Amino acid sequence: MSAPRYIYRDLETPGILHLEAYRASGGYRAFEKALRTMTPADVVEVVKASRLVGRGGAGFPTGLKWELVAREPVQPKFLVANAEEGEPGTFKDLPIMTRVPHRLIEGMLIGAWAVGAREGVIVCRGEFMEPQRILRAAIAEAEAAGLLGERILGTDFSFKLWVYRTAGAYICGEETSLLEALEGKPGMPRIRPPFPVSAGLWARPTALNNVETFANVPGIILEGAAAYAALGTEKNSGTKGYCISGHVNRPGVYEIPFGVTLRSLIDDYAAGMLGGRAFKAVFPGGASSSCLTAEHLDLPLDFHHVAQAGSMLGSAAFMVVGEGVCMVEVALRLARFFRHESCGKCIPCRDGTYQIVRILERMKRGEGVTCEIDDIVDLASVMRQAAFCGLGQAAPNPVLSCIKHFRQEFEDHCAGKPCDLLGGGEIPYGHHH
Amino acid sequence: MDITIDGRPLTIDRPMSILEAARLAGVDIPTLCWHPRVSILGACRLCMIEIVGMNRLLAACTTRVADKMEILTDTPALRKVRQTMLELLLCQHPMDCPTCVKGGACELQALAYKWSAPVNRFPENPGAYPPVDVSPFIERDSRKCVLCRRCVRVCHEVRGVTVLGAMHRGHLKEIGTYFAQPLNRDFRDPYNCEFCGACIDICPVGALNSRQHKFRARSWEGALVPTVCPFCSVGCLISLQVKENELVQSRPRGGLNNHDQACFRGRFAVDFVNSPRRVAGPLLRRDGVLVPVDAATGVAALAGQVRPETAVMALVSPRLTQEETADLVDAMAQLFPRGDVRAVCTMGLNAADIPLGIGARPWRDLEEADLIVTAGLDLTQSAPVAGVRIRTGRAAGGGRLAVLDARDTLLGSEADLWLRPAGAHLPAVLAALGGLLVAEHPERLAVRPDAALAAIFAAAPPAAVEAAAGLEPGSLRSLAAQIAAAKTPIFVANRGWFDPSGQVPRLLVEVDRLLAGTDSKGIVFLRTDCNSRGTAELVAAAEPEIDGEPEVLIVVAADPLGTAIPGSSFESWTRSAKFLVVVESTLTPTAEAAHLVLPLRAFAEKDGTFVAGNGVVQHLKAALASRATVPPLRATLTAIAAGLGRDVTFDSTESPRKPRWSPPERPSAALVPRAGTARCLHLRWSPLVDHRVRIVPEADRIFPGPALEVHPGDLAGLGLAEGGQARITSGPAEVTVPVRADWRTPRGQLYLPLDPGDQRLSAFVRAAVRPEGWPLACIELTGLAPAAELR
Amino acid sequence: MTYPLAPPSYTIAPATRERLAKLLAEYPSKPAALLTALYLVQAECNHLSDPVLTEFAAIMEMPKSVIYEVATFYSLYSTRPVGRNIIMVCQNLCCFLRGTDEVIMAIARELGIKPGETTPDGQFTLRPVECLAACERAPAIQINEKLMGPVAPADVPGILAEYRR
């Protein structure tokens, strides 16, 4: 089992929450190195060489993103940290924000130096009231120490950092929706192009990265790109915070180099299936991904291999389903999630998620018709092609994969067979929003 | 750029979206949320297309063409997408087509006809939104809404009113209003529905309908007749749908002045032509009551009053067509040599300011101006489409906007510079502005002011004017600097204030001349009537000097008792004439006082010409056949002539008619504000409403009657209450009016809008104490409980 | 939802207005502050009612319909009265796998209301929500600002007792 090396390093050190202990463990040395001995272009090169990709789920090369923003001559430029952590099954950013917030701040400082941004925002989801306070306190500490604000460490470099809380919408994890929320509007995604790197917050060049992405940066700067690139797999470098929850004995998030197998993740890190039950399915990338089954237990878990297996690693949010769970219910829970969180802008997502839930609810009640299974499959393919943003495109993934791997359960429900699996009974409530 | 669409090559010479390119090539890509008038949304996903070499579908409206693109617009995958989108929309859509108002004109119907699959896999489940809505004039049925958000975009972007919004999220998303309140005119709220109907026009389905015309006819029935709106001088082009000689609906059509927009009047108030309160035939006063008579009797009654020496005067309003006005002038000249024809316009223009700013200034200029300066009251209320053009013109051209308007209006809140001088002081403000331009920016002037003008400027020192008018010190200086810095400033004015001598437009004309010299194209002057400009070219408006008063007064389409300046000659002649003949389409207050009323055809019943305020000549086309008892004006005049035993010829090239206007008077000495004027009441016109609007059913829900307008924060201090009444006394004059809290009224000021036709208010104004004709009255105010009787 | 308490006539108190003004001064523009400002007003006025938002729109100098669009889009704003304590219970997949349904029903039984409702005395609102990013402690609930998990049905009376007043 591997120890945390980049994002969760020193998480257990007493007092690491505060500046003093963070600095004592080597904190802000990466930033000083970047500020005093490297040009912004140097920093970009190092990040590019490390082959770090975005940890929020999209997997866009971070170095390239920063290079695009750095190139923009317009000022002001912004740096935004996406701390929405809305994907079900994801909880990897919270430990960074609530236990070693200075690592996030340091990563953002390096990023601001690299792209030329003078203002930054950490955008937390609305439910993160406590984490927001912790972040503000950490920022205050950093400001008091001359690490944030004007003339940082006695140089001409200034960077002001804010914390902003959105108000409860999963769609705001999507980068353009997040920018809309920052601008005081409903979080509906924007037309792209233009992309945030050229026209983002208030139509200015904006580098928007996930919290975990920023948390990798100090280590990369300090130890060099090669060390980072040496970890992981051929296609995906470095480490990842793997979240694992559901029917496992020890749910949690573990920083592991890319390439750990599913079996290892469950057995070695999460201490095996809950109560020794058999493994049934897992959603590797949270609610937006297709499920994998027992045949994939030895799959190395990186973006590439998971995609080849027909799913998506995303933010590495493994929701493990053990035997004895009704997959129609599983599909329904996730379908309801998407229906609730759809922003309502485009027809395929707004009405498609609604129809999927309606059909699944009928199946649960035993009123479903077999051809409706194919209706869902068909609708899903259209949603994937036509939806305006990633939410609508990904929304059908869970139900599609459940049908693909567990079609019999769906057909049994349509045939009216009683289901004695977990969740197979009547839904006790149906209240939504 | 060279691209192919469905295999056909196309060369594109400027950046555009794939959708635009397809339209150029005549290829039909289905759309729903796209509309040329509003911003691109990309929400309906009906316009998806394929590009060879890309494995993703793209939306045509949001994707720009790139060189060498090969676009496919009709493949099995795309058909699948379109079918599915329509299935999803239709399964939630009430299948009301046979009885739906929009049937036949519905874009969803058309799309379904062309693109949908024969079977809908998703069963019918029309949404839970209740269709009940109690707004006047505009009906909203959310069940039929496809959430294209065109209405929201037109309301926000084009009209600026921002009443409709897309509320909630996801499948609960609904086009609605704040807290789902009905569309209403709430004068305590700056953003409330103007009932312009733009949302109705842009809605592709039957979710937004005109309540007024609902169920009168199907969309394909009857004829569509293009004509011109008969209300204000913007001159919006409208299209009347007529079925079985009844006006079904009026909708705006594309025009030079209005683009494709209209306001409440052009869209809904034109319904007055259908009113049973139209004058249907001649009425003669017998025993104090107007009774219907036949034409011969009426004409005989008039003839009986006329001797060769009788002084006969005709008063005409600028609501007649050019042809009718010319006929009247011809007839008067031939029949009554001792007579005269004068124009009396709505809002009491009695001096010769009709020809002001007589250069034709196209509205298009607003888009090229780098600075637009508006001065007047409530520009967006007196001529709403002008307000839209100013806003959208500025948005398109990027110029700056400076607004001089005491009231809180949309235009003011969007302006780059907004000064709010109390109404009475606006002329002084403009004079001070002129003085600042002369003193501080002499290099900018094309000509120097003459002595008279210089004296007027000198009499209005900026500091004193700012203090009296309640402006921030230095604000006039900034405005002057902005004007001087602009290369192409355009001035826009209207007559919202009770400004008898027309100082505001006069002063603006002078300022414009100073800046542009002989290149001056004039100001944009928003006159109040649809043919003000045209009438000005035929008839003078100055009060003439005649000895004695006219004994016989023929008032044609004018309403001196309702709209002339109280106390003016026009008003007093109307009261004193021995025999008052009114030729009108509806029973105005003047008609109610007449001895003989002759019917007049309404705008929808005649061909003719209006000249819009900026000189554009536009043509009316008769859409309705009027009753046999309502002849054209020419026939009425011929009948009058016959009754007098005479002949009259029209259109004779030998007619002695000459243009009767003289160059506009220069501004008189600007009114120097006085300190210490006791509580003042600012009088203003409420120009949106005239008697034609008042007879439209439910119009009073949109335009409640006149009331004392007070800022909500001032009510308590004045001892007034919303919904209560106030007794206003000024010298011997007294009137009791309701009190209305109006957000737009500046703090510390009181406004009284003069509704044309409200005799009590006219009487009050006539008798009120007004220092030297200022547009305000010194008054005492007493709050009364709501129990007091109204009117 | 039945809410027997008389509709509160909240308007924005002067102290709230002061705090709002201070908040707005920290942001580059009023729209930038909108979401945060709505939180402030909601916290002090219980919920975003018609009179409150009317005043708020005037302070923000934004049209009411735009403010209402934002207020109804986001789940954490409420335009209807809510209890003093808002209990959010995750109903998403991982919490379901670890027994959140029983926890929700336990809370509902304990409070005598249905999920989604507010208790008649205005103490608690029970709100089933989506993932709270606490899947490792499923089933998770968040009461006001405090995140708790894993919660068992037997823990419910004790947890609620701390919030009863």
Could you walk me through the main structural features you see in this protein, from its secondary elements to its overall organization?
The complex is a heterotrimer of chains A (433), B (791) and C (165). Chain A has three domains: 19-229, NADH-ubiquinone oxidoreductase 51kDa subunit (Rossmann fold); 239-322, Ubiquitin-like (UB roll) (Roll); 327-414, NADH-ubiquinone oxidoreductase 51kDa subunit, iron-sulphur binding domain (de novo design (two linked rop proteins)), CATH 1.20.1440. With 433 residues, chain A is of the alpha/beta class. Chain A is built from 17 helices and nine strands. A seven-stranded mixed beta sheet of chain B has the order 14-13-24-23-22-15-16, sandwiched between helices. In chain B, strands 32-27-31-28-30-29-33 form a seven-stranded mixed beta sheet. With 791 residues, chain B is of the alpha/beta class. In chain B, helix 2 crosses helix 3 (107-115), helix 8 runs parallel beside helix 22 and helix 13 (426-440) crosses helix 14 (451-458). Chain B folds into five domains: 2-74, Roll (Ubiquitin-like (UB roll)); 122-274, 2-Layer Sandwich (Alpha-Beta Plaits); 283-351 and 532-599 and 631-643, 3-Layer(aba) Sandwich (Rossmann fold), CATH 3.40.50.740; 364-526, 3-Layer(aba) Sandwich (Dimethylsulfoxide Reductase, domain 2); 679-790, Barwin-like endoglucanases, CATH 2.40.40. In chain B, a hairpin with a 2-residue loop joins strand 1 and strand 2 (8-11). In chain C, strand 3 (141-143) and strand 4 form a beta hairpin. In chain C, 45% of the residues lie in helices and 11% in strands. With 165 residues, chain C is of the alpha+beta class. The longest helix of chain C has 16 residues, at 30-45. The interface between A and C is large, with 58 and 46 residues.
